[in-house]
Amino acid sequence: MSELKELVEKFIEIDDNLNEKIEAALNESEELDDSFEEEHKEEIEQLSEIYHDIEHLVFSEEFIIVSNASSEEKEIVALIISEEDEDKEEFVIPVFTDEEEANKAIEVFKEQFGENEFVQDKKIGSEIISDNADDEEFIGLAINAPQWDFVIGSEDVHECCE
Fold first, then answer.
1. Taking 90 as the threshold, does the pLDDT of residue 112 lie above it?
2. How far is it, in rounded angstroms, from Cα 147 to Cα 98?
3. DSSP H helices in the chain
């Protein structure tokens, strides 16, 4: 398993756990108590550190991207994340850490989009971001989507800043 995949899984686990605690606290009160952040400071800091590590890894990680090869020109699959009633169609590009994750997503895409011909290519994270940087509706990369619910904003991806 890649280091990036491990970090994202760890981030999701900690984030889910913290969200459960937030929900439980909100069931007892309409607002979070000021002490909540202090009580969970370690988890919040850990999330921040892991996310920062993910930002660096995504920059240089080689991902699998999925394209629809059924049209005249091969098109990278993008997932629309804006609401239907919005003027803009904001989107993320799903990227995959390994072939197993990409194949799972292709099965979902076939269910949603019909029997299109999907192909896999490899590309570095920073290149994907750069290729889409001029599109104002591009939000970022969805890692192992739709299986995971983890999006990293294009503005967050950067080289190590040591």
1. no
2. 13
3. 3-28, 35-39, 41-60, 99-113, 125-132
Res 149: pLDDT:
80
Q: Is the pLDDT of residue 40 over 80?
A: yes
Percent of the chain clearing pLDDT 70 (strictly above): 97
Smallest CA-to-CA distance from 106 within 158, 153, 145 is with 145
Are 107 and 121 within 8 A, CB to CB? no
User: Vertex 67, ends 66 and 73: CA angle to 5°?
Assistant: 165
The residue type at 131: D
Residue-wise over 119-143: b if at least 16 C-beta within 10 A, else e?
eeeebebeebbeebeeeeebbbbbb
Pairing of strands 75-76, 79-80: unpaired
User: Contact at 8 Å (CB) between 3 and 56?
Assistant: no
- Give 82's DSSP letter: S
What's the CA gap between 123 and 119, in Å, rounded? 13
> How confident is residue 72, by pLDDT bands cut at 50, 70 and 90?
confident
pLDDT tens sequence across 115-134:
788 999 999 999 999 999 99
Phi, psi of 122 (to 5 degrees): -115, 140
